[in-house]
Specification:
By secondary structure, this protein is of the alpha/beta class. The protein has one domain: Luciferase-like domain (TIM Barrel, Alpha-Beta Barrel), CATH 3.20.20. 40% of the residues lie in helices and 18% in strands. Strands 1-2-7-9-12-13-14-16 form an 8-stranded parallel beta barrel, surrounded by 9 helices. Strands 3-6 form a two-stranded antiparallel ribbon. The radius of gyration is 20 Å and the shape is globular. The two termini are 16 Å apart. The N terminus is likely disordered.
């Protein structure tokens, strides 16, 4: 039986949360096809175990000399103005170069629609500042029909990665306002007809997109810790997403800011966490540590590069003075990694302090079979106790 966020666990007497899997498409073995198919295998296993959700991460790849649109269009689809420019070098939208292979998130999600039937599929997240909102509205409405109403739509501004803004011709200072304005337009396009919109960044006149979504309202989530974006989410009854490195203090602050505006949004937080459960704590840590160490090293190297560009993103700032959210011990502390009891206790803490709606587990072994076994162990020994 698929649970809702308001079901009560008969064993603990507490509200249950939706369990999901977080798909990151990391290319540990330098084989992109293998990395993609492994994530498909994890989603299918999660669905067979009764997981309610799967979230797909967007990492965009920009090829050398790729022709890209300069996003300065305005008006309807028949008269959209699109300029073009040529990129000068190879780079990724994120910091992983060829280490993550999910540049086309909606394509990956369309494939998952064909190999699943019950699990809800969400984007985590579409970087709206770099997309045409009319095309995005058409795409997610089409996906919702393919999914038979199983779509959740997560968005983010992207960053703090200067190269992506440079090559998508979007100043860093405009990423967030463009994202929020694009979401406002997309929401109108999904549910209204003859939409006319005149914003700072986007304009259209008498546009109607087809098909319309199957769901009356597609659930929308924002990945953010920014006060303005949190207020936007709360005012529109959109949910929030918390990234795997987000600290408990950051999460609690985000939730408090949201609920100060929208007190009904207590079940609208999706939290992603690095995850691995094993028979013993030491076995779990030993299996997960190579993955976490790789992530830590890459993020620290990237942070140094970004700081040299005077980028002061809140996501790269030290925690409690000097401690980094990319330190191995910090990642272990804030992840759901350990034996069965440890994982139960960590999830219970998140549940008690944040009143979670959903938790998305990011399996962090470098071995596919061990990740599959860990999901099975979670289903058998953890899920029914949280």
């Amino acid at each position: 039986m698929v649970r809702t966020a308001l079901d009560v666990n008969t064993k603990t007497g507490t509200l249950t949360i939706k369990t999901g899997i977080f798909c990151n498409y990391k290319n540990h073995h330098r084989d992109a096809r293998r990395a993609i198919l492994q994530q498909v295998a994890l989603v299918r296993r999660a669905e067979s175990l009764g997981f309610e959700e799967a979230w797909v991460r967007e990492i965009q790849k920009i090829k050398c000399s790729t022709l890209l649109p300069r996003i300065t269009y305005c008006a309807d689809r028949s008269t959209t103005k699109v300029e073009h420019f040529i990129t000068g070098k190879c780079l990724t939208q994120h910091h992983f170069s060829d280490f993550s292979v999910s540049p086309s998130i909606l394509v990956l999600m369309a494939h998952l629609a064909g190999v699943t039937s019950t699990i809800r599929l969400g984007s985590a997240a579409v970087l709206l500042a770099f997309h045409n909102p009319i095309i995005v509205a058409e795409s997610i409405a089409t996906l919702d029909n393919l999914y038979n109403g199983r779509l959740s739509f997560g968005i983010a501004k992207g960053g703090p990665f200067p190269d992506q803004n440079k090559h998508f011709d979007t100043p860093t200072s405009e990423s967030r306002p463009k994202t929020l304005e694009a979401m406002t337009l997309i929401h109108k396009l999904l549910y209204d007809t003859d939409v006319s919109f005149h914003g700072k960044y986007y304009e259209c006149e008498s546009v109607t997109v087809y098909p319309k979504p199957l769901q009356k309202h597609i659930p929308v989530y924002l990945a953010t810790s920014d006060d303005e974006a949190i207020a936007f989410a709360a005012l529109n009854s959109f949910g929030l997403m918390g990234g795997a490195p987000f600290s408990m203090d950051t999460l609690k602050n985000n939730v408090a800011n949201y609920r100060a505006i929208n007190s009904n949004g207590f079940d609208r937080l999706m939290l992603a966490r690095f995850f691995f459960v094993a028979p013993t704590y030491d076995e779990a840590v030993s299996e997960a540590l190579p993955f976490l160490r790789n992530f830590s090293q890459r993020m620290k190297a990237f942070r140094t590069r970004v700081e040299s560009c005077d980028n002061n993103s809140q996501h790269l700032q030290p925690i409690n003075g000097s401690k980094s959210c990319f330190d191995e011990d910090y990642l272990l502390e804030n992840s759901i990694i350990g034996d069965v009891t440890t994982c139960r206790d960590k999830i219970k803490r998140f549940q008690d302090e944040l009143h979670l709606g959903s938790i998305a587990l990011n399996p962090c072994s470098l071995n596919l079979q061990k990740n599959l076994d860990s999901l099975t162990r979670y289903n058998q020994e953890v899920q029914n106790y949280v």
